[in-house]
Amino acid sequence: xxxxxxxxxVEVGPRDGLQNEATPISxxxxxxxxxxxxxxxxxxxxxxxxxxPKWVPQMAGSEAVFEGIQKKTGVEYAALTPNMKGYxxxxxxxxDEVAIFAAASEAFSQKNxxxxxxxxxxxxxxxxxxxxxxxxxxxxxxxxxxxCPYEGDIDPEKVAEIAEKLIEAGCYEVSLGDTIGVGTPASxxxxxxxxxxxxxxxxxxxxxxxxxxxALANIxxxxxxxxxxxxxxxxxxxxxxxxxxASGNVASEDVVYMLNGLGIDTGVNLDKLIQAGDFICKAxxxxxxxxxxxxxxxxxxx
Length: 302
Hints:
This protein is an alpha/beta fold. The chain has one domain (about 10-300): TIM Barrel (Alpha-Beta Barrel), CATH 3.20.20. Helix content is about 45%, strand content about 15%. It is built from twelve helices and ten strands. The strands form three sheets. It has a six-stranded parallel β-sheet. A two-stranded parallel ribbon has the order 1-10. Strand 2, helix 3 (about 60-70) and strand 3 (about 75-80) form a beta-alpha-beta unit. The longest helix has 18 residues, at about 115-135. The radius of gyration is 18 Å and the shape is globular. The mean pLDDT is about 95.
């Protein structure tokens, strides 16, 4: 299969990227980041999460974030919603789209959501039904598609089974997450080939962490199989709070730089994206995790 000519970048920085930061981040800072990301050309921004703030304190102000966004035409502002209460909060706050999440590992599902995979699917049914009624699209996530911090290697057929159930339930797209970043091009392709037997490439996305420095290689391998949607986080912010040592979302700047080099259109302006990453890193006083951003910012300073 030939590589896609266009790739949609799903920007998860404002949610997945910031959710683990220990220092509270104001709604105004998050809103400013979202505005900068939309100005850079992102058409999909995961802007917050309506989870219990007891578990993810950083997302406690998601209502204020969604209500403060000056929405740009053509941009989807999405929210993660683990249950009906979260869905109702997202709907009331003006989210354009919601996302639900399952896991391909029973142990991870229990640790992450305090329920089995089957129980998590049951929880999603009313959310999907309500979203249909309210005219909102639902995106699905599957965690631990290659490896799990508790179970080790994951059977690709299990991933395919969970992804198919999410599509059948009503998700328009399923994002396949290498939550702890242990995948290599070979293991990612093996997993994807299993899923592609059940779901067409146009309904799939990849969410590949860079824990072992393999994310860009794994994204390239995914592109070779026709995947045209890639999740990434500005400045490489974030990771998984339930997977020890698994920090390291792939940086949006690095993904865009690679895709630009391949002649694949993303609609994202790399210079403006780097400015957005530089803004949030300075605002939260942390190093920029994007190699591309570091190189180009140093070049400008030089």
